[in-house]
């Protein structure tokens, strides 16, 4: 099997994949002659930390690099020796196997006092530096703080939190990021061209997706694919070595849930069971797809910035689902699949997933509450008021706009809004208790807030989606929110204040209270109602 990550190791800054924010900084320092003497490269594994360190070491020792330039020539004797790993003035030290203070004293401190033997600078690349002992860090501290002018330290680590602050403060810290799937696909395509093998784009995207943003993992996996032999490799051949995935089936399951097709969803689950699918992996794949849909719905374009790229074919289906699936429905499915991922194994492997998809299909309508949460919610006392609320909260027809209501009518139904919101988020219920709703006109309702941070909370896209779905349920039609900041409103004088509790208890004057009175007025009372607490002496 070819070792692609060695054969195609970057030799110049231009060859390094991603990390443009770091390459620009280093190249500017090299071009202007303001290079530091101690750098800390931190970030996930297999994203180019050591490769960047070697290119930097090669650049500072390049014999043909002209003033103002920031790339090594790659042809001089120094560049050749560094590439082969036998340049005397570039020392790579594995801190995992040289953890003690004696190793640091013998390998670094003693050598640092000597001038370079043939190069311009002595470069110490210490990999996995967080593995050094405390004594070794203390021994290293002094020379990093005041290094000779001919010394360059490059510390690499995947666990920067284990590096002492005294070391971090004396280094220029560069944080590396995972590499996006699209960039990995381009790199694998170039490797395939160099190897003169035609590989389908579907295979390239599959390898990039399974690498998780780690280039070395992608190159190792791609090496297994190329080892199959032949001038052309497609999806069928690649399946022999690539771990199987079921992204298309995961998206199909989400589509069936959205259509409330419980029978089709159960049939799909059983088809997967018959084919020997690992349901734990399948649930994780479904969670990945739901997460992408959630982020795409909350803020279009954000998923690409986060590196959530599934390839052209999957992206088209995910994009369509993001426009069709209401955000509250997506959040409900995410929570249910998260619970499912934590459940223990069942004697019938597909049974937990069957239960989950049937529950989600039954509650897929945006106006229905989560099946799992309502199963454990005690029913409130049946009164004339609650009966009226149930009649008023009938599911609105798709596309229907809520009927106009006066401010008094909105205030009368506002406690029901607070009760339903509290099932999703206690703190959001508290925010809404401190606003003054206005009349409902043409499907629009204005909420007046005394405090800016309350108003800004409602303007958040995800919160706004939940709010509008709850209002659509309560007012039997589509409702759009307008949040207004009004510092002059008097919250204490609202008719809502007396009935803002989700479960008000009738007061009987003739009978004494069964327990001592509790301080449930004012701010303390609002907090107790919002977070479900009680006052104790």
Which strand order do you get reading across the main beta sheet? Answer: 2-3-4-1-5
When the domains are counted, the total is: 4
- What coarse outline follows from CA principal-axis ratios? globular
Report helical residue fraction: 40-55%
CATH-wise, what's the superfamily of the largest domain?
A: P-loop containing nucleotide triphosphate hydrolases
CATH class call of the largest domain: Alpha Beta
> Would you report the number of β strands?
10
Q: Which CATH architecture of the largest domain is right? A: 3-Layer(aba) Sandwich
- Under CATH, the topology of the largest domain can be stated as Rossmann fold
- Distance between the first and last residues' Cα: 72 Å
Number of helices: 25
Tell me the radius of gyration: 31 Å
Biggest sheet character: 5 strands, parallel
**Percentage of residues in DSSP E strands:** 5-15%
Function: DNA polymerase III is a complex, multichain enzyme responsible for most of the replicative synthesis in bacteria. This DNA polymerase also exhibits 3' to 5' exonuclease activity.
Catalytic activity: DNA(n) + a 2'-deoxyribonucleoside 5'-triphosphate = DNA(n+1) + diphosphate
Region (Disordered): 369-397, 495-537
Keywords: ATP-binding, DNA replication, DNA-directed DNA polymerase, Metal-binding, Nucleotide-binding, Nucleotidyltransferase, Transferase, Zinc
